[in-house]
Structures are given as C-alpha cells and as structure tokens.
Input
Amino acid sequence: MCDTICVLPSWSETRTSMLAKNSDREPNEPHIVRYYPPRHHADNTMLDCTYIRIPQAAHTNAVLLFKPDWIWGAEMGVNEHGVAIGNEAVFTKAKNSREALTGMDLLRLGLERGNSAEQALDVIIRLLSKFGQGGNCGYTKDFRYDNSFLICDTAGAYILETAGKNYAVQDVRDKAAISNRLFIRKDYTKAAGIRQGGDFAGHFAEPVFSHFAKGRQRRTQSLCAIENGPVGVSQLIAALRTHTPRFNGHEFERGDVGSVCMHAGGRIGDQTTGSFVAVLRKDAPMTVWATGASIPCIAAFKPVFFGIAEPPVFDDDSRARGYWLRREHIHRAILAGKIDAGSYRARRDALEAEWLAEEARLFSGGIPSAETLRAFAAKASAQEQALVDEFSRGDWNDMPGNRYFSRYWRKHNAMLK
Output
C-alpha cells in the first residue's frame, strides 16, 4: 500500500514541481535510501533485476532511490534530470503470477533511462509491453499486484495505470494523487488493451482487494490536503502525516489501513516504512526531504541534496539498513509506552521548522554552492541523530498487554533484525 502526491509549478508555492510519497510495506521490512552514480555500460551487457535479466542500457542516469533493501527496484526516487516517480500497488483482473519485472523494477528503470517525465513514461511502457510485470513483492508473504505510477519532472507529470501489459495514461494538470486502486476511467490520453473510449478502471479493476485496500479513502485525504494552492513543502509533509479523524490520537493503539500515514497492527494492512518530498528545480539543485525511517507522523524529514551522500542517504546497503533500524526502535518504544510521542514530536517539529527556514533562506539568495548544501545536510543529519540518540532505549521491544495489537507487535519485535 502507498500514496503518492504531486503538484506542478502552477500549483506550487515556489513555482517548482514537487512529488511526495509514503511507501507502505511490512513493518519489519527495512526501507533504505541509496544514491547510485551515472554509469556507462559495455555493449551486450545484461542487467539482473529482482527476478529476471534484461538488456542493459548504454548509459544509466544518476539516481536517488528509496527502496526495500532486498529488491533491485525502488518504491520512489529522483534522477539527475529532475524526474521523480512514485508507484502504487493496484489490484486488477490481469494474471501476473509468473516472474517478470516488478513495478519497483519498472520505476527504477524509468529513472535510470528517462531524461524527462515523458521519456520515463515511454521507458516503462516499452519495458512493460516487452517483459510484462509480475513476481512476489512481499517481504515475508506472497503478495502480487499490478502497478500505477505518478511520473513528474520540472514541467509536467503523468499518471500511468497498468493491468498486466495493458495500460492507460492521464496527463496531470496542476496537481494529482494516486493510491492503491485504478482511477482512470475514460479520461486517458492513450491506452492499450481496451477499445477506444472504454472504461479502463471499470474493465480491469478487481473489486474486493481494491475495496479493502482503502485506496479511494486515502486518495481523498491526499487531494484534500492539496486542494487549495499554492502548496508548499510543509503542506506535503503534513499530507503524508494524515490520519483518519477517528484514528487521530489513537495511532499507537491500533492499526489503520485507511490513513495516509499508515500504522500496522490490524488484521490487514502494513505501515509506512519510508517517506519523501522531492522539490524538482529546473536550474538549481533539487532538495529532497527524506525520513529514512518509518511512520512519518513521528519521523523527521531531513534535507538532502542530489549527489550528496549524507545520512539518510548512503552508498552502502548495510549502513542504510542500520540507520532505518535505529529509528524503527524509536517507533517500537513509542508503541510500548517507553517514549512519549508528544515530547518526541515537539522536538522534531522544532528541528524541521529550523531546517525549512534555512533551506528557504539558502535558495532565496541565488544558487547555493555544493559545499554550502553539504554542510547544511550534514548539520541537519547530526541534529536529528542527536535527537534519536537522546530518546533511544534498550527496552524498545518490551511490548506490554495481551490484546491482539500487543501480541501482533511482540511477534514482529521478536523477528526484527
């Protein structure tokens, strides 16, 4: 489960495109942030994706990826040309039991091979048509699905919804949000697998999983958060922290698949394991606000800059995994009542306000140097690390009580690596 939001320059406070996403996956599944530099590849090189091998491109772009640590692809990311993509699991009537490209593989391939949103869209469609999509995308369970994508660059954006090798494309005007169900009906600009003028979602959507995933409910929350423009980074961060009204104040007592900030602990649903907001500037460095942690309603969005590997960005899986786990221990300690969530949030809010103000100041005076941005990212990272160190507890896994919620978390705590 996931939610992705974008606003274009016409709807943006800073006249820049922005893409924001929560990645919702299994609670114990580390979600890491990795930077990969651009590369040239020899002729006839083959690429090992999550399940299959495909021909490698002659050149691949530098990419900043937000990904489960065990797969080749990514849930969301940005490339050096200012293209950002988020994907969603969607449930359709198409059959995808065989191993093929996962939706996350397609997302990474679009970023590595596309220099614009339109090129990334074409890359994904072309590879989808040739290799198909499929394979288990679950961490400890068998979980297979098709995918939708929100593909954005500095000037425009597209929604791509798929069902097997079938697809529909919708151009974005001003703003958009996608979630875990098909939404494109007859309002597509191009499509495959359906007659002209046909209802794509009506024809391909699988109704039962689509209903229980509550994608319609979460998409409504996202759209409400950006209904009134112009929209800034702080509004997108707030959107990613949205809970349903009945869940507010009880988010560490039970699970809720219906909130954009998803909390596990119910009989269905996962939790938000990673979040980002990407600010896609055309002629200046991009800012990516990244948590490197689960549960955005407690995690801090730190400023990172493309090509600068300051935590939560790493060039090594092991260190990235350790960073995520340390912050997950904070979350588990809050669930266990060992840390007061209000106190932690208050300290985090003060840091975020400082970072947002400093980032705005840096870019209001022209184009900051790489050295200035590196120093800013390092300072913010160190401040957040100090907060984590101060609140960390060794008894994070001591979950009291005997309700289903408590038993759920004791089980997951025992398995957390």
